[in-house]
Amino acid sequence: MNKITTASIAALLLTAATVWAQKPLTLENTVPGGTEFYEHYNYPVRGQFVSNSDVFVVVEPDGYHVGDNLFSRNQIDKALVDNGKQSMSYILGWQNAETTWIYSDKASAAYGINLKNSTITDSITQIDNEGDIDLAPDFRHAAVSVNPDLFVAGNTGNHKVNEQAGDGIVFGQSVHRNEFGIEKGTFWSESGKRLAFYRMDESMVGEYPVVDITAREAALAPIRYPMAGETSHEVKVGIYNVENHDTLYLKTASPVNRYFTNIAWSPDDQFLFVAEINREQNHMWLNQYNAADGSLVNTLFEETSPEWVEPCFAPLFVSNSQFVWISERDGFKHLYLFNIKTLKTKQLTRGNWCVTELYGCNRESGEVFFQANAEGYLTRDIYKVNLKGKMTRLSSGYGVHSAWFSPKYGRFVDNFSAPNYAILSTLCDTRTGAVIDTLKSVRNTYEGYTLPIIKTVSLKSADGRFDLCGRLILPSDFDSTKTYPVIDYMYGGPHSQLVDASWLYGASTWKMYFAQQGYIVFTMDNRGTESRGVEYEHCIHRRLGTCEMEDQMVGINYLRSLPYVDTTRIGIHGWSYGGFMTISMMTNHNTVFKAGVAGGPVCDWRLYEIMYGERYMDMPQENPDGYARNCVADSIGNLRGRLLVIHGDIDPVVVWQNSLRLLQNAVEADVLVDYAVYPQHEHNVIGHDRVHLFKRILQYFDDFLKN
Amino acid sequence: MNKITTASIAALLLTAATVWAQKPLTLENTVPGGTEFYEHYNYPVRGQFVSNSDVFVVVEPDGYHVGDNLFSRNQIDKALVDNGKQSMSYILGWQNAETTWIYSDKASAAYGINLKNSTITDSITQIDNEGDIDLAPDFRHAAVSVNPDLFVAGNTGNHKVNEQAGDGIVFGQSVHRNEFGIEKGTFWSESGKRLAFYRMDESMVGEYPVVDITAREAALAPIRYPMAGETSHEVKVGIYNVENHDTLYLKTASPVNRYFTNIAWSPDDQFLFVAEINREQNHMWLNQYNAADGSLVNTLFEETSPEWVEPCFAPLFVSNSQFVWISERDGFKHLYLFNIKTLKTKQLTRGNWCVTELYGCNRESGEVFFQANAEGYLTRDIYKVNLKGKMTRLSSGYGVHSAWFSPKYGRFVDNFSAPNYAILSTLCDTRTGAVIDTLKSVRNTYEGYTLPIIKTVSLKSADGRFDLCGRLILPSDFDSTKTYPVIDYMYGGPHSQLVDASWLYGASTWKMYFAQQGYIVFTMDNRGTESRGVEYEHCIHRRLGTCEMEDQMVGINYLRSLPYVDTTRIGIHGWSYGGFMTISMMTNHNTVFKAGVAGGPVCDWRLYEIMYGERYMDMPQENPDGYARNCVADSIGNLRGRLLVIHGDIDPVVVWQNSLRLLQNAVEADVLVDYAVYPQHEHNVIGHDRVHLFKRILQYFDDFLKN
After folding, report:
1. Into which CATH architecture does domain A162-309 fall?
2. Which pLDDT does position B164 carry in this prediction?
3. What is the domain class of B454-704 according to CATH?
4. A610: which residues sit within 8 A by CB, 6+ positions away?
5. What's the complex ipTM?
């Protein structure tokens, strides 16, 4: 592995057209799922840190590099087979530099293996391979959720955690549709002796009739889908005691219309902390519970907002009595230190920028590690801050850095991507950020290919208050004396950023392919997207689509000002929220767009789910005008350009009813809408079928935009 | 009403282009459901015969013309209101020339009204308005099927006929998916004292998950849909005795895999006759049952076929011991006289033509009235035959005649349509066919409009054995020195005939509109379609689509031989079986067609229902190769032209799974298929939405065929 300084990257220029290049881009090498795509994808180094250490295990084709040792997959399998076990399916984790834990599908078991002497050190048996496995920090147990039940497995077998399940009640699974930063349903205490878990009762939630057409006769495969304004599911938080097998539930307020998020253990296992949010999502209570009996100890603090509160990061404990909390209370996401005993709060970071990730803390040094966009909203860098508020930037080089920190916080892997540098993974020192080793470096994932020209432009948001960054992709043989058709690709929804300072300014590579087919491809993030502060992000409240469109029209007007843009051939494309935006733009500005493609579009926010939908729109009962004004299913009669709507027939996120309603209304309104269905695809068309999808999208623009 | 002789019609020439014409055709006046369509539709006179008479009641806007009397709707309503009843919803029938029976939705009752003296003569009460009403011949009772139950209503109220229903069991409804000529589920004996009815158990039939997207959250609305080769429903035939309220069931063989069709009563109420057919549909038993106890009296005769038997007309009794039966036993559908006592059969009609309708018989004169195509396969005429086999043609004028006969068989209404005459309804004498009165006459439903040019051409079937008739529609400004794109519209399935000697040679008027947009529109019936004899019709057995395509390619080759046809711009369109044919043609002859539109297509005969599907294809288990070869969902990878597939999302005939499977396979095969869904439409897009449908179809051909 060569060592590359980040300084040298900045010297590179992104003038791909001048590069000696012969090979043309194809859909197969620019669309995820294409047979050649992954050869060109800028994924970071593969690997993970060893538990309780600063050792990073690099995974290479020849095996697992642990310090100077290399352990091959064959060697691990041989150790298993020699001990009479089944071969491995995948690595669960590294207990120490010699001992790895593997999972074996065939045996439904996990084994700890000392690779130095090829012995099995311990095992966890009867893990159902259908479930999600969450290994305890002490490697002695695993939480396994096997729908609808939850088990804790150890070396003597399984113990079922929950009482009766079924009839719409599930245990140990992610809840609240993965909103509020929730990604899983089990939470080990640091000692590994207690397990917090979710219990979700969906029995009162409406079932959406998804249909499986691959059955001999099409069969029903319904999903519980709680639509905005309708009855929501009910969640409880349980605690399982590994030593005595007891289970108790937190004595919270009624779970009706209440969200339980950001679960964290105190380091000493004594307390469980839960951020509880009302259904209106404008009030949060950070509650401390006694883990021994589930009783409420204290509401530590509350947060409210006229629009919404949305905590996404669990309390990060720097000691038994202090934790770091991310709050937007000053208008930007910043770190606060909270003391459980004194109930005092201290702001650790401040400025017109946002903390974007919270990585962890070194309790000995009192340092907290995080990611933020303090160097500019297109960038992400790695920082640390001590408990006095002294902040240090650990990463260098203009671009997007993300990190994995070692359990001992002595090292981190910096995965860096810049507009002109695809991926650079380095092992760094947490004291200074100094590079210790280069783990992976690929300057150009398309070396030898003809690439289009990528430029950015700074524009002002429609209200004049924010800088927006537009990204233009021009064909490699661009001739400024000619005019070109434009495809404006957008997403526009919360928690998104399409243009940043990563490789090719974040351009997904199919857009480069489209550019090479003679289109200018434009993208710009609007107000309402992520990590720009409350005023920028919250202006969408109760009127999704409105200020997003105002900003997107700034981009359109910029495009129309360019002499090489053919203003009669402006196209638009987006998926999901971007599909909603595409139809909104085409129906609200119906003389602007000649053709558009909207995939998986929300066509009526009343058909979207409660957690995401009501955060932004309130309930339909509370905001009928807002729902009506932003319902593209109802405004489709305004359509004048050619519109292709695409939907997966088993989409569990934006249910099919959305686009079918739109089609029904289009017939009623005497408007022709083109349509495509991707059978047996969910919210996104994935796998190799995605190549077909983009072939279709390109064909549509070729048919109705190009000429 | 003017009297017009049929002789004068033949003198008219169909040279619409020479007619002084100004108004252009539009979708609204050429598509059924369009706001102006019905002004131009060639429907016959409205009316019905009075019971036990030769009096025909003509319905005009001013009311009901009964002989010299006119009864207005207001007059009927006044008679009701004056007698303290609710106003009428519709006429159920005429008991005599003074007494009509009406149904009142609001009162859920039927009333007999003497219109001469405005008195209520009788009533039948508590008829549920959700059900189908079948009035007994004596006007004393009505059979009312209210899913899932069956009631017999009289003037003292309702009696429920069936025992326990529900759980998939229904009574009094049409069964076997309306195949075998079945149109209803209740059958009154001539005296009105006994009622035969169907009991259908569908509990063992697979449910197809149809989805209602108009619900707040999409809701399931499943249908029992028995797919080819799967478990079929089970039917029993019951008899209800009106006088003692007893119900019994016929003691048939096991109803598993057996069809019960063509139910008829002997004139004396003593026997019930049922044509029973095995699941393979190659063996029929005509059984006589004792109506008093349901026992089998005799199997009168059997019919078998190497392909299929398909009786569609119930025995027609000319006396208590003799009935007329339609059989294909000599290769064509002909009338046979069968004697129950002697078990002897006598053939009444013969020739290389088919009986197409059986109207009834005059038991006094021993004359049987029917429709046949004896004058040529494009025609239909009205005939009678006596029991000695002497046949007399009652209708005159080249074209298509259909008839309604009076209960006393002294009169009939001849509804006549010719290529150059839209509709002529005359009241005729059954003795000679002489015209007594002209009831309606419209020579040209598009008087004053510019019409395209319609021509026919005679071609030989691919096997050289049959004449086929192609119909060409040319734009009114047709110029033989230019070249035109062609749309070949086809259906091609059994029981169909698209080209005949009716108005405009049977051309549906939207085709004329398409021609006026610059297309030549061609249509031709192929082998396998109706009323041409067993050899012509049965060649499709176990290989649906194969010889149909061979014939359709004869039509294509004819088109390609025409100097004014642009052979690079041949399009194709069809719906249902025609949708199947469209995709079959485009995938089997994939260099021929530039663009096609397939609506509601059967894409895999395994997904079609048992009764129709297995008759032609046998079970998938018995004919795997036949199913595989004719599965367009599987051959879609051969597609080269542009194909638009259209489907209604609640289609209960060709279930949605068909086209969704095809789309899924198209993705797999890397072929692009265009798609349209008509939400909440069943097998055909009906109502005003049909105008939108044809707007779409035309747009598609304009996009991808015209230039």
Report:
1. 8 Propeller (2.140)
2. 78
3. alpha beta
4. A226, A227, A228, A229, A230, A232, A279
5. 0.94
